[in-house]
Amino acid sequence: MARAAVAGNMQAAVATPMFRVTTRVDLGPLGAEAHRRELSFTVLLARACALTVREFPDFNSAWTRHGIAHRERVDVGIAVDSDRSLITPVLRDATRPVSELAEDWRILADQARRHRLPPENYRGATFYLSNLGVFPGVEQFDAVVPLGAAAILAVAAPGPDGLTALTLTADHRVVFGADSARFLAGLTGRLGDPAVIATG
After folding, report:
1. Listed residue (52, 60, 31, 54) closest to 185, CA to CA
2. What is the pLDDT at residue 102?
3. Which of 66, 70, 115, 172 is catalytic?
4. 172 catalytic, yes or no?
5. pTM for the complete prediction?
6. What does the pLDDT read at residue 114?
7. What's the CATH code, domain 2-199?
Protein backbone atom coordinates (compact mmCIF):
# COMPACT_ATOMS: atom_id res chain seq x y z
CA MET A 1 0.00 0.00 0.00
CA ALA A 2 2.74 2.45 0.98
CA ARG A 3 4.76 1.59 -2.14
CA ALA A 4 1.71 2.17 -4.33
CA ALA A 5 1.19 5.59 -2.73
CA VAL A 6 4.83 6.53 -3.38
CA ALA A 7 4.53 5.32 -6.98
CA GLY A 8 1.40 7.39 -7.52
CA ASN A 9 2.97 10.52 -6.09
CA MET A 10 6.15 10.09 -8.14
CA GLN A 11 4.17 9.47 -11.32
CA ALA A 12 2.27 12.70 -10.75
CA ALA A 13 5.44 14.59 -9.83
CA VAL A 14 7.32 13.75 -13.02
CA ALA A 15 4.87 15.96 -14.93
CA THR A 16 6.45 18.92 -13.11
CA PRO A 17 8.92 20.92 -15.27
CA MET A 18 12.11 20.45 -13.26
CA PHE A 19 15.71 21.54 -13.58
CA ARG A 20 18.83 20.78 -11.53
CA VAL A 21 21.81 22.73 -10.28
CA THR A 22 24.80 21.07 -8.57
CA THR A 23 27.56 22.42 -6.39
CA ARG A 24 30.26 20.72 -4.33
CA VAL A 25 30.93 21.53 -0.69
CA ASP A 26 32.96 20.27 2.25
CA LEU A 27 30.51 18.83 4.78
CA GLY A 28 33.32 17.71 7.07
CA PRO A 29 33.00 20.70 9.42
CA LEU A 30 29.25 20.10 9.79
CA GLY A 31 29.86 16.44 10.60
CA ALA A 32 32.56 17.38 13.11
CA GLU A 33 30.24 19.89 14.78
CA ALA A 34 27.48 17.28 15.00
CA HIS A 35 29.89 14.79 16.56
CA ARG A 36 31.33 17.36 18.99
CA ARG A 37 27.90 18.40 20.24
CA GLU A 38 26.43 14.86 20.07
CA LEU A 39 23.79 16.07 17.66
CA SER A 40 22.23 14.48 14.60
CA PHE A 41 23.98 15.38 11.35
CA THR A 42 20.58 15.09 9.67
CA VAL A 43 19.05 17.66 12.02
CA LEU A 44 21.88 20.14 11.46
CA LEU A 45 21.67 19.73 7.70
CA ALA A 46 17.88 20.13 7.75
CA ARG A 47 18.17 23.28 9.86
CA ALA A 48 20.80 24.70 7.51
CA CYS A 49 18.40 24.11 4.62
CA ALA A 50 15.49 25.66 6.51
CA LEU A 51 17.47 28.77 7.43
CA THR A 52 18.47 29.15 3.78
CA VAL A 53 14.89 28.67 2.63
CA ARG A 54 13.84 31.43 5.00
CA GLU A 55 16.46 33.65 3.34
CA PHE A 56 15.12 32.70 -0.11
CA PRO A 57 11.36 32.36 0.51
CA ASP A 58 10.44 31.42 -3.06
CA PHE A 59 11.80 27.97 -2.19
CA ASN A 60 9.06 27.70 0.43
CA SER A 61 6.37 28.13 -2.21
CA ALA A 62 4.45 25.72 -4.42
CA TRP A 63 2.69 25.84 -7.75
CA THR A 64 -1.09 25.36 -7.61
CA ARG A 65 -3.80 25.64 -10.23
CA HIS A 66 -4.51 29.09 -8.83
CA GLY A 67 -0.88 30.22 -9.08
CA ILE A 68 1.99 30.22 -6.59
CA ALA A 69 1.14 29.52 -2.96
CA HIS A 70 3.50 31.09 -0.41
CA ARG A 71 4.05 29.50 3.00
CA GLU A 72 5.51 31.10 6.10
CA ARG A 73 6.71 28.10 8.11
CA VAL A 74 9.53 25.96 6.74
CA ASP A 75 8.66 22.26 7.14
CA VAL A 76 11.46 19.99 5.91
CA GLY A 77 10.58 16.51 4.67
CA ILE A 78 13.53 14.14 5.07
CA ALA A 79 13.65 11.00 2.94
CA VAL A 80 14.18 7.89 5.08
CA ASP A 81 15.01 4.43 3.75
CA SER A 82 12.60 1.76 4.93
CA ASP A 83 12.49 -1.97 4.29
CA ARG A 84 8.91 -1.47 3.12
CA SER A 85 8.96 1.84 1.28
CA LEU A 86 10.37 5.34 1.06
CA ILE A 87 8.97 7.67 3.67
CA THR A 88 9.60 11.32 4.43
CA PRO A 89 9.09 12.33 8.07
CA VAL A 90 8.52 16.08 8.30
CA LEU A 91 10.54 18.22 10.68
CA ARG A 92 8.10 21.05 11.35
CA ASP A 93 9.22 24.65 11.69
CA ALA A 94 12.80 23.56 11.05
CA THR A 95 14.33 26.93 11.89
CA ARG A 96 13.60 26.33 15.60
CA PRO A 97 16.43 25.76 18.12
CA VAL A 98 18.41 22.59 17.49
CA SER A 99 17.51 21.12 20.89
CA GLU A 100 13.83 21.13 19.96
CA LEU A 101 14.45 19.78 16.48
CA ALA A 102 16.68 16.99 17.81
CA GLU A 103 13.96 15.71 20.12
CA ASP A 104 11.33 15.89 17.39
CA TRP A 105 13.60 14.04 14.98
CA ARG A 106 14.30 11.34 17.56
CA ILE A 107 10.56 10.69 17.82
CA LEU A 108 9.99 10.84 14.06
CA ALA A 109 12.90 8.51 13.27
CA ASP A 110 11.70 6.02 15.87
CA GLN A 111 8.18 6.09 14.44
CA ALA A 112 9.55 5.58 10.93
CA ARG A 113 11.73 2.63 12.01
CA ARG A 114 8.73 0.95 13.66
CA HIS A 115 6.46 1.77 10.71
CA ARG A 116 4.21 3.75 13.06
CA LEU A 117 4.53 7.19 11.52
CA PRO A 118 1.07 8.81 11.42
CA PRO A 119 0.09 10.58 8.16
CA GLU A 120 0.29 14.04 9.73
CA ASN A 121 3.98 13.37 10.37
CA TYR A 122 4.88 12.61 6.75
CA ARG A 123 2.61 14.95 4.79
CA GLY A 124 2.77 18.65 3.97
CA ALA A 125 6.50 19.37 3.79
CA THR A 126 7.42 22.65 2.09
CA PHE A 127 11.03 21.68 1.25
CA TYR A 128 12.66 18.25 0.93
CA LEU A 129 16.04 16.72 1.72
CA SER A 130 17.36 13.40 0.44
CA ASN A 131 20.73 12.22 1.78
CA LEU A 132 22.45 9.21 0.20
CA GLY A 133 25.79 10.25 1.62
CA VAL A 134 25.89 7.16 3.85
CA PHE A 135 26.38 5.03 0.72
CA PRO A 136 30.02 5.27 -0.43
CA GLY A 137 30.43 5.76 -4.15
CA VAL A 138 27.23 7.76 -4.70
CA GLU A 139 29.01 10.65 -6.38
CA GLN A 140 25.90 12.57 -7.41
CA PHE A 141 22.19 11.93 -7.92
CA ASP A 142 19.00 13.70 -8.87
CA ALA A 143 15.89 13.65 -6.71
CA VAL A 144 12.29 14.24 -7.80
CA VAL A 145 10.47 17.25 -6.39
CA PRO A 146 7.41 15.92 -4.53
CA LEU A 147 4.04 17.48 -5.19
CA GLY A 148 3.37 20.54 -3.06
CA ALA A 149 6.98 21.72 -2.90
CA ALA A 150 9.30 23.87 -4.99
CA ALA A 151 12.57 22.02 -4.43
CA ILE A 152 14.47 19.06 -3.02
CA LEU A 153 18.15 18.88 -2.12
CA ALA A 154 20.03 15.66 -2.96
CA VAL A 155 23.16 15.03 -0.88
CA ALA A 156 25.71 12.54 -2.23
CA ALA A 157 28.68 10.86 -0.57
CA PRO A 158 32.01 12.72 -0.25
CA GLY A 159 34.31 12.29 -3.23
CA PRO A 160 38.06 11.52 -3.14
CA ASP A 161 38.70 15.25 -2.71
CA GLY A 162 36.48 15.34 0.39
CA LEU A 163 33.83 17.43 -1.34
CA THR A 164 30.16 16.44 -1.50
CA ALA A 165 27.84 17.06 -4.45
CA LEU A 166 24.66 18.90 -3.49
CA THR A 167 22.08 18.84 -6.27
CA LEU A 168 19.06 21.10 -6.01
CA THR A 169 16.12 19.99 -8.13
CA ALA A 170 13.50 22.71 -8.50
CA ASP A 171 10.09 23.36 -10.02
CA HIS A 172 10.74 25.72 -12.93
CA ARG A 173 7.28 27.23 -12.57
CA VAL A 174 8.23 28.60 -9.16
CA VAL A 175 11.97 29.36 -9.30
CA PHE A 176 14.61 29.81 -11.98
CA GLY A 177 18.23 28.82 -12.48
CA ALA A 178 19.72 31.99 -11.02
CA ASP A 179 17.46 31.59 -7.97
CA SER A 180 18.85 28.11 -7.41
CA ALA A 181 22.42 29.30 -7.87
CA ARG A 182 21.88 31.97 -5.22
CA PHE A 183 20.20 29.46 -2.90
CA LEU A 184 23.14 27.04 -3.17
CA ALA A 185 25.62 29.86 -2.61
CA GLY A 186 23.72 30.86 0.53
CA LEU A 187 23.56 27.29 1.76
CA THR A 188 27.27 26.74 1.08
CA GLY A 189 28.17 29.84 3.04
CA ARG A 190 25.99 28.73 5.95
CA LEU A 191 27.49 25.23 5.97
CA GLY A 192 30.91 26.84 6.31
CA ASP A 193 29.95 28.07 9.79
CA PRO A 194 28.34 25.03 11.43
CA ALA A 195 28.55 26.45 14.96
CA VAL A 196 25.92 29.02 14.00
CA ILE A 197 23.65 26.27 12.63
CA ALA A 198 24.04 24.31 15.86
CA THR A 199 23.49 27.18 18.26
CA GLY A 200 21.49 29.86 16.44
Report:
1. 52
2. 96
3. 172
4. yes
5. 0.91
6. 86
7. 3.30.559.10
